[in-house]
Amino acid sequence: MKMRLSGPTIIGILVALVVGLALFFATRPAVLEVELARVTRGPMRVTVNDLAETRVHDLYTVSAPVAGQMLRVPLKPGATVIAHRTLLAQILPVEVGPLDARTLAQTKSTVAALAAQASATRAEVQQSLAALNLVERQLARAAQLRAHGFVAQAALDQARAEKDRALAATAAARDEAAAARHSLDAARAALIVPGSAARGRGVVSVVAPVSGTVLTVPQESARVVTAGMPLVAIGDPAQLEMVTDLLSADAVEVRPGATVSIEDWGGAEPLIGRVRLVEPYGFLKVSALGVEEQRVNVVIDFAEPRTAWRLLGHGFRAAVRITVWSAKDAVRIPISALFRTGNAWQTFKVERGRARAVTVALGRMNDNVAQVIAGVRSGDDVIVHPGDKVRAGSKVRRRAVSPIEESNAVN
For the YknX-like C-terminal permuted SH3-like domain, which residue ranges apply (predicted)? Predict the structure, then answer.
């Protein structure tokens, strides 16, 4: 006997099926869409990056040898100069200033006293010469008497000693007279009237100490200068180097001979350089944010011919990437696929559509990738930027596959 279902019963069964299906779809784990990247194998390098400046290898800053009025500098930056021949500047030495009445009276009194002292020393010289003449005659007589046996040898020795003392006294008197004369001249120089020696003042000419090119002229116009003030900077633009000041923690990783990529210098292609020197001392530098940093200068030579960088000059700026580590064949994983769990690095590896948390051992890192020692292999897919929703065992669906670009892996 067949059972017939009434209309309300059929409706109830259908409602129950709909509710069951809704509950099933509502409670089943959602499939997450994630971005995947592939672990690859290839070259990798780690660099220290900073800004650098070009500078002439041997820079000569010519300074004013005397104080005075400098005439207009006849040279412009870029001019060629020849050692010991090209005139750089002319300086008219500074004129003496006038003396006030008190200082003038004191100076005149000093001159009079020194003149009297010089006169006295001249008299002492004449007196010592007379004494020397006397002892020389006495020595001659004693020598004659000794030759005939009329005086003892002791008398002759005494006469010779008297002559030696007279010679020493004469030399001392002459030195005192010379010192007094020089002191008198120095005192008289203080009485020179301003303007009296203007026609006799000589212009001091400053010539180029080396051959090269004028790099800078701080001021071309005539002006008053002091001794030691910079006038002109000279160097050879063909002998350029680069210098960058690295944090001391980065500088200890740099070795002489390391390869350097010189970028953003204005040319179409990066230039290649080599580290020549890591200076053995550091210095304190305050950053733009006011942080005190210990810095170390690293000097870089160009490894390419001058034709490649001929447009560069002294004081030009560029970005440098100094290689501190490199490998031709390394297993590489994107930095964005890594996260910390305690003291360990982990990544989400995708297997059969599910995310699996894997602990990885890492070696070197750069800005884009890390070297994998253990945990994943080349060809594995890992989740990039997993976010908070991804858990171990989560079902995932590939949204995009982004293989590591070769250039990013190298950098």
Answer: 331-397
Q: What is the pTM of this model?
A: 0.63
Q: Are strands 396-401 and 32-38 parallel, antiparallel or unpaired?
A: parallel
Q: What is the mean pLDDT of each run of 10 residues along the chain (411 residues)?
A: 59 68 58 89 95 94 90 91 92 74 80 84 86 84 78 78 84 84 79 55 84 91 90 92 96 96 94 96 90 95 94 94 95 94 92 91 94 94 88 81 46 46
362 and 327 in one domain? yes
| Residues 370 and 267 placed together within one structural domain of the fold | yes
| In a shared domain, residues 210 and 288 | no
d(C-alpha 307, C-alpha 285), whole Å: 35
Task: Identify the domain boundary among 155, 189, 223.
Answer: 189
Q: In 184-316, where do the E strands start and end?
A: 204-207, 212-216, 223-225, 230-235, 240-247, 259-263, 271-286, 292-302
Q: Which of 400, 374, 375 is closest to 385 using CA atoms? A: 400
Its domain, for residue 269, covers 31-57+237-411
> Is there a single domain that holds both residue 167 and residue 245?
no
Q: How far apart are CA 271 and CA 302, in angstroms?
A: 8
